[in-house]
Amino acid sequence: MAESDTPTPPRLLPDEIHRAVKPGTALLRLQTTHSREGVLDGAWWPRSRDVPTELPALIQALTAHLGPITRVGLDTDAWEEVPTRVVVDGRVVHLGSFPVGDDTVLITRGDNDHFALLVVPPDTTPDAARDAMARAVRADNVTQAAEILVATLPEPATDREESA
């Protein structure tokens, strides 16, 4: 079968959103679900693992849709220098270390309202990132972040493949 005969996989996002997703993008599912068990509330594709550079734009986007963000939890082993707080638009946002892995960031609004976002690795290809983000924001998603990334990201090249 010729390459042009290969069916194109269905896109999980509308075309205009699919074209707009690029490094630095965050997607949120603003519609609530009855059960939040195992469900992600959105996805984020940072450009790098530099928290002071990447996090303010995410916090600004989240604040515009969710209201003031008070805390961000992330796995500090997965990020470059992680300060204890950042100031975004004059508001202090506390950063905490949680063993959530490099595939998740936890957002707190107010005192006790939590949101979990899939973190797409910065070096991910655009198509793989879009697919992972689209899966994360589906209202019926019950798949954990790590499983979504394994299912959507290409397999890393093995030493044998690299030497070929």
The assembly state of the depicted protein chains is single chain
- Number of helical elements: 5
Helix and strand element order: HEEHEEEEEHHH
Shape: globular
Bin the helical content. Answer: 25-40%
Largest sheet, described in full?
A: 7 strands, mixed
| Structural class by sheet pairing and helices | alpha/beta
As a whole number of angstroms, the C-alpha radius of gyration is 17 Å
**Spans of at least 5 consecutive residues with low confidence:** 6-13, 159-164
How are strands sequenced across the largest beta sheet? 1-2-7-6-3-5-4
Question: Overview of this structure, please?
Answer:
It is built from five helices and seven strands. The chain has helices at 15-20, 51-66, 126-137, 145-152, 159-163, and strands at 25-28, 42-45, 69-74, 85-88, 91-97, 104-109, 113-119. A hairpin with a 2-residue loop joins β4 (85-88) and β5. It is globular, with a radius of gyration of 17 Å. It starts with 14 loop residues before the first helix and ends with a helix.
